[in-house]
Amino acid sequence: MLPYTQKMIELKYRTVAAWAACVVEDMDQFLPDHAAAEKKASSMAMTMVSHYPDRPELVTAMVDLAIEELNHFRAVVKFMRERELHLLPDEKDPYVNELRRSIRSGKDLFFMDRLLVAGIIEARGAERFGLVADALPEGRLRRFYRSITQSEEGHEALFIELAELYFDPAETRLRLDELLDIEADIIARLPLRPALH
């Protein structure tokens, strides 16, 4: 896996504190949604392996990422079982779907945007998991969300590093800035609910 250099993404919209309060008030709704997000993240990483088998750096990184996301999924499922909660049926995430509509067509443009969008999604996850950790009382769940926040920050850096490995860094940063404007508009319109997005 590439070494993370923590090229952090500067999100252009900050999640309001009321969102974290909404989550903490209804963790029984949030945990199944979080589990679904981790499962999808693991699946996405393996899809990248299937789509880009000729990119050895990406393949190695995505295999490691898929395993890490699956471990997160397992950890969330354990918290759910303690609360006698069940997994949700697979559903489309409106935030992720709308953001992915910004991905350009064309082999290289599509690949670049796919990496950058994945990095932005991880950055938003890191921000929101951090807010949840800060809002929770001391205990196992808070420690877990602090740990998850650090992991997501590493994932965000990984996707930016991969984009800059395969494409011109200056061009990559310009496109990242454009996508961050789009993402800020999408996230600002989301209703407050006990879900990651």
Give the integer mean of the pLDDT values: 95
Helix-residue proportion: over 70%
CATH class: Mainly Alpha
At CATH level 3, the topology is: Ferritin
The CATH superfamily label reads Ferritin, core subunit, four-helix bundle
Compute the gyration radius: what is it? 16 Å
- Structural class estimated from helices and strands: mainly alpha
Largest sheet: none
Rounded to the nearest angstrom, the distance between the terminal CA atoms is 28 Å
Task: Count helical runs.
Answer: 7
The multimeric state of the shown protein is single chain
Contiguous uncertain segments of 5+ residues: 1-5
What does this structure look like?
The chain is mainly α. The chain has a single domain, classed as Up-down Bundle (Ferritin). Helix content is 73%, strand content 0%. The protein has seven helices and no strands. Helix 1 crosses helix 5 and helix 5 crosses helix 7. It is globular and about 45 Å long.
Summarize the structure.
73% of the residues lie in helices and 0% in strands. The protein has 197 residues and is mostly helical. The protein has a single domain, classed as Ferritin, core subunit, four-helix bundle (Ferritin, Up-down Bundle).
Topology diagram in text:
Elements: H1 17-25, H2 27-51, H3 56-82, H4 94-100, H5 107-135, H6 140-166, H7 169-188
What features would you highlight for this structure?
single chain, about 200 residues, mainly alpha, Ferritin, 7 helices, about 0% strand, globular, disordered N terminus
